[in-house]
Design a protein that fits this description.
Blueprint: H1 10-19, E1 23-25, E2 31-36, E3 39-46, H2 53-67
Antiparallel strand pairs: 1-2, 2-3
Length: about 70
């Protein structure tokens, strides 16, 4: 994801989020919200394809904070 932020599907993002135990909020709308307990920042990603690289970069930043 860091090397190539293009071409990701929401299913891929959700799979990575589950691997890092992120909280996933998807209430049947057009967006998914990812967060982690103790980290104030959350990332909202639209479920529509294609997902823009800026959203993937923010998601990777959240994962980096979780790994710290």
């Amino acid at each position: 994801m860091k090397r190539n932020p293009r071409g990701w599907r929401i299913e891929d993002v959700v799979a990575v989020a589950k691997k890092y135990d992120l909280l996933i909020r998807a209430q049947g709308g057009s967006h998914y919200v990812f967060g982690f307990p103790g980290i104030r920042d959350s990332v909202t990603i639209p479920a529509a394809r294609p997902i823009k690289p800026v959203y993937i970069k923010r998601f990777v930043e959240l994962i980096d904070k979780v790994k710290e």
